[in-house]
User: What shape does this take?
Amino acid sequence: MQPLITNDAIVFGLLIAIIAFTFYTASLPSIFWQKFYSLFPSILICYFLPGLLNSFGIVSGEASKLYDVASKYLLPACLVYFTINIDFRALQKLGPKAIIVFLAGSLGVMVGGPVAIGIVKIISPETVSGETWRGLATIAGSWIGGSANQTALKEVFEPSAEVFSQAIAVDVVTAELWLAVLLYGVAYASKLDKWLGADTQAVEEIRVKMEADFAKNQQNPSLQDLMMILLVGFGTTAIAHTCADGIVPFISQNFPALKKFSLTSSSFWVISLVTLFGLILSQTPARNIEKVGASKFGSLFLYILIATIGMKMDILAALDKPQLFLVGIIWMFFHASFTLLAAYITKAPFFFTAVGSQANVGGAASASVIAAAFHPSLASVGVLLAILGYALGTYCGYLTGLMMQWVAQ
Assistant: This one.
């Protein structure tokens, strides 16, 4: 059926309007909007509303070229902006407990995904049959890193629009339920710290330091600064595409058996390389672009990308397999168990437990919310751990996806 709007310039304007409307209403002090976005995160709205436009024939996600442009140009640059800000020295200053708890949460995601599929396969084989694992594999990227990593793995594993829509539903609902549990736990942090036998002095020291660092590093960007941000993001993207254009034909011709590991996918190499380049650049003066807002560009590009992905979604198809939520619940149980066990063994404060978990499952936004619930100045601790998640999300998510493929088949 011919969509009502076929001009991509108009469609792009609609998507930007949706994103702008979402950000505007999310910033309003109204109790209604605050409660609304506490239940439905802004990134979900930016995915859902374009899906409605597609489902009701107003636009066509399949006919539009916007997603192709966003995934080829904006996604790699977005990953560069998120990883270039990683500060290994600052991570060391958080102490081993914070890193151990965070990594335990990541391991819980990697173990929990394949196990959850295995359990549900025994209970209800049809639930995880066929190519369903491809969509679920993208959740691994989301729950170790964030939406950018999930989108990256979508390019690697290539789930259908229907399967990916179902995965998004499982991802969001399960992650939001876990976020609610953690926020509830903040009110009982002191009791939980006693149970964990934790030393909370480290958290107070970090709070003081983060307040000082935030005040010191903020700068207003000049036009030259903005140009440098674009140069680093899209220049790195260009180099990654150049490398991929040489690597993919070589592997395809000489090692065709590696196709089952996605090593003949151009998207796999572009995404892997820009993440690697971002980590390398984080150790050079190029990382200074973060002081003038590089990660804000990354967030902007990510929201545009999410909107173009949403435009391919069929809302009704996303609810075709409600039994998939069982996979999400079992999976989250493993993540939570690994995180809490690591905290108990290391005597880490509940602050590190909650923030480390959300740095995995929810990314920078949710990790910041959890951290700020303890104290506003601690929000940047959540961001710092989430950046580590961005660095690991694509690689660890890819390995998890391969394990899920093996279990599913």
